[in-house]
Every structure is written in structure tokens, then in C-alpha cells.
Predict the structure.
Amino acid sequence: MTIAATNEHQRREDPPSSSWKERLVIILLILGASLGLLYYQMPKATISVTPQVLQLSEDLVFEFSQLAGVDLKKASIMLTRKTAATGRQQIGITKAKGVITLVNQNDTKVTVPKGTVVQTGSGISFVTVKDVEVPALTTNYFMDVPIGLIAGQAEVEIEAVELGSSGNVAAGRITTIKGFDLNVRNPDPTNGGDDAILHIASEDDLVRVKNLVKQDAPKLALDALFQQIGTGFVLEETMEFDLDWLEETAIGQETNEVYASAMSKGQVYTVDLDILGKHLNQALQKIVPEGFQIQADSIAFSDLKVTKEQDWQIILEVQAKALGNIDSNYLAQVLAGADEEDLQAVVAGFPNIANISVTDYSGKRLPRIAKWLNIQVESAVY
């Protein structure tokens, strides 16, 4: 048997196993191409959907403890204010001096020791500066005939008990001696008592300088606060100031200048507006109808008020816009096979949709296969 005959015999006994697979692949490729061609040739529709926009205006109340962006700022600064002393005080610097005459109308002499007090009728006191003996009363005779009585007299120097010009008294004003039955007079004025005028802190001075501190303290504390505030929004209604008095000139103290020092303390709450905006977004999202989403960039507030009951509160009038959420896949399933009347019913039944329009399609009904609907969500204008 020849080689050619042998090969022919083998082909008859073993048909090729790959030929049928090749034919199957070709058939599948043709079928796929046909289906693809059919898919692209089937009519499709583009549906433009405009989301509904809700205008919101709400009054919202937040306690400070609910807000993450609220911060308490504190600052303190010491200040001293001064003013001229207007109080005046007269003080004696030297004692008045003089001479008195002591008159003894008794039968015995009298020794008056140093330091004996004599006084004017108004009570100004002097003391003798040395011991003095005052002779007794004597009888005056003329040729052994008594013709009169002569009282004993003696002079002695005195000085005022108190410093100052109050000891300068006129002649004859000193009339009383303490502890002796004697008459006393000053034949000449006493002199030499001098005064000095001192500047002292008066009560009015202290009131005035404290008022200067009270006037300037809030501004200085506020300046110190603003150095710490940074970019936070200041809630002015929460601003508080206090004074701790430190030192002050004592009333009656000799001085040309009266001063008062205090520690000015201030505190104020601030709020981070970005964080506040997130709180507003969360609060509004809880009250907006289902199917709508608050647009963060549309949130605005006005008429911000701060009150205090048990806790500080922020009250805001908030305006925002909520945009309807569009689920394109779900909407395509709803619209598949719909006609024009169905479209209007869908708009009426979906509060989150403002308008639906069909483009690039001329059929009376939309394709019944959802994937053949091209849902385009238009940007809402608000």
C-alpha cells in the first residue's frame, strides 16, 4: 500500500476534531455582530430631567453645647491710671512761743514747775518751759501805815503744746492755769507757730481715678481678646468684662498723685462659620422632604441673635435651597415604554422632578428597554 493510500485511510477513520469548533466560533461571531448591529440600529431616546428646587427658610436654634465650632476666648490685662491729688491738709511745723505773767494773791509763795499747762479761753494749750517761783501777796506801807496790797508776780516762758499757727494767740488770751490758784495773762501775743500745706489723696480723687480705670478697662481687654480670636466670628452679645482691683492710693495719704491699678478681664464666645454651616446643613437635611438634598453652597443666614437662658443659644433665620435627587437607573425603568401622558404623570408623581423632556426620539412611546433610555440630569438654576 502506498503512503498516499495510507493517509487517505486515516482521514476516513479519524475525522478532524477542530473543524466543528471553528465553524461554531464563526457562527457565534456572526451572531454577536448581528446583535450588536441590531442594538445600535434600535431606536434610543435621550431624556432630559430637571431636578426640582425647593426654597427653604427656617428659624433654627442651637445651644452652644450642641455646636462644635463655638469657642470661649479669654484675656486679661493690668492697667494703672493716675490723677493729680487735690486734697489739702494743713499741718504745723513749729510751735508758738511767748511769755506769761503769773499773779499770786495768796499769802504764800507758789512754785510752778516746768511743764505746767496754761490755756486760752478756747482751749489752746501751752506749757511752761522751766520752773518758776511766784512770790506771795505783800502789804505796801507808808511810814508804817499799810496803804495797799501788792500781789506776787513772776514771768515765765511758754510754748504751745501743738505745732502750727493755732498757737499764735493775741495778748491777754491766756487766762487759765492748771493745778494752781493763780491768775495768768500773756502781756504780748505768742508767735512763731508755722504751718505747711500738704497735698493728700482725697476721696474724690480716688473716685475719679477709679472711673478712669473703669472707662479704659473694657477697651484694653477687648484689644487683648481680639489678638486671640483669629478668624472666628465674634458673638458680641456674649462679651463680658470684669475688674479685679489690685492697688490704690489710701485716702489721706500725702502725695502729689493718686493712682489705682486693676486687672481687666474679658471673655467672649466665637463661632467657626464653616463648622456652623455644617451644623445648619445637617439640621436642614433633617426637615427637608425625602428625595431632596440641601445644597451647602446655598446656605445663608441672617438676623443672628444670641440669648441666654440656662445656656447660651444661637437663633438664626436660615435660607437654603434643596435640590431633588435623581436616580437615573430607577427613572429609566419607570419611563421605559411610556408615552407623553405617562411622562406628565411621572413629573406629577415625583416631587423631586421639575421637568422631563425627550430629545433625539420620534416614536410615540419610549423604548421598552430601560438601557435604551439615556437619562441626562440637567443642572438646576437657583
The chain is about 25% helix and 40% strand.
